[in-house]
């Protein structure tokens, strides 16, 4: 990518939003994409056959979406990746939103200037009322990543070619497929960390409400990718 590519928005970004019964939040998510100052964005919503009015909201907002049953959020991720035509892919969950109107252009520029395959930053977690809870997302080595997933997936912008080369998300995981994907690629692609808030994330996702399963799946992912069993159990 050249600086000219950035200025004329020639690098296409695909934003994928998985949603299931997200009528309370999906409109905010979609609007946060629509107001981005980077205009070469396709936004694809993958709805898991919602029954709470989500589909009607998507129609009112003239969103591009498909609606069908899936096997979980990572199945929805993979469907979105398969449909995406962009050079860079970002997964923005239906209860999340971009931190500001220049987020996408900022991340595209960061990836360009550093020739990155994968860029990530920080995520601000808030409660249901929008009150600040904590910041997540750190610059980590693979060794540090094996101990604990401190990469905030809702901040990750990934070149489409990385999914083409290394595959998508393992649907055998219900919570930790993003962690397994990170470990699969971490030392094989060029990764950069931008210490800025990329996404605002509402608390209440599956990993927050199923802590024990999250730990079990994270341990399994670490063991698959080289963590020593005894050290993994300690961690």
Report the mean per-residue pLDDT as an integer: 91
In sequence order, what are the helices and strands, one letter per element? HEHEHEHEEHEEHEHHEHHH
Content-based structural category: alpha/beta
Largest sheet: 9 strands, mixed
Helix and strand arrangement:
Layout: H1 3-7, E1 13-19, H2 26-34, E2 41-47, H3 54-60, E3 64-67, H4 73-83, E4 88-91, E5 96-98, H5 103-113, E6 118-126, E7 132-136, H6 142-147, E8 157-159, H7 160-166, H8 177-185, E9 191-202, H9 206-209, H10 211-224, H11 229-234
Helix pairs in contact: 8-10
Task: List key phrases describing it.
9-stranded mixed beta sheet; 235 residues; globular; 11 helices
Offer a concise description of the structure.
This protein is an alpha/beta fold and 235 residues long. The chain has eleven helices and nine strands.
Give a written overview of the molecule.
This protein has about 240 residues and is of the alpha/beta class. About 40% of the residues lie in helices and about 25% in strands. The chain has eleven helices and nine strands. Strands 1, 2, 3, 4, 5, 6, 7, 8 and 9 form a nine-stranded mixed sheet that branches.
